[in-house]
Amino acid sequence: MVKYLPHVDSYEDINDLFKKIKEAAVPARFTEGFLSTILGLNSSSNMTFISLLKKLDFIDLSEMPTSIYWNYRDETKSKAVMAKSIKRAYAKLFAEDKYAYKMIKEDVQSKLIKILGASKEDEIIPKIASTFLELCKLADFERNKSEPMSPLHKRLLAIYFILFVPMILYFLIATWPPSVTEMYTGKIEYFHGLLTISISMETRVLLLIILSGTLGAYIHFGTSFIVFEGEDRLHKVFTFWYLLRPFLGAALALLVYFVFRGLLLNAGTTTNDINLYGMVAIAGLVGMFSKQAIEMLREIFDDLFAKVKNIEEE
Prior knowledge:
By secondary structure, the chain is mostly helical. The protein is built from 13 helices and two strands, in the order H-H-H-H-H-H-H-H-H-E-E-H-H-H-H. It has helices at residues 14-23, 32-38, 49-55, 67-72, 78-89, 91-96, 105-116, 124-136, 151-175, 201-230, 239-264, 276-288, 290-313; strands at 186-190, 195-199. A two-stranded antiparallel sheet has the order 1-2. Helix 11 (239-264) runs antiparallel to helix 12. The two termini are 29 Å apart. The model has no long low-confidence stretch (mean pLDDT 88).
């Protein structure tokens, strides 16, 4: 089944939509009534604009305008804000070609058919391409380019990576239980007894998940750093991303572990019952591929939210 990127039927009205978003007062909720009555976009095909705005993160799942919606209304920021939203919503297309916004419609369609696995006769593909290109007309992808990283800057980040990876590996190995078939509660000694902690079985697993998520993030960090340095594309704007990336990987790995334990395993499942190698491997992959993990969590939340909404309506 093809998983389509954001699109609308009335893509020719996209410019009008965003022009009126700037002109009209910000609503408490961006409803169909606001779209048709206040903005004057009342055709049945215009109603898909609400879904598009959600995909662009202009409004949240409850249809409340987000900070992106507010920032877009600022003429000095609107094009840059739109560019960032487009890059998020069409990440697969930009992963295929970072200059996708410069392509003509036929080339966009060709890329979409490839990355989505769609047929050439698929009637949705032209709508996605047209929606994407109309949005790109409202964006500025060249604005605010960051200055390159200095050699000293690069060396400091390299040292940060070189020092922390062995440390994470050491703590991961030292925390690993004597036997994965029988988790032990007791003391863990680090640095030949200089640091000793007493933890439960559950805490040991949580610590391993965090360490594995951090390690995965560092692998992504190191790969990205090497590739961007090789292509001479390292910019100062990436600094905080590199510094905070391991912490994001650790937190996300822990959250995904909770989702697995809470939704996929029985309530009575104990620490001894889980596949430790499998869980730690998943944590590492989550840390390495955080963007995909966040998208997975978003889909899970959307599915749960939709079910709750259906129950409330019944």
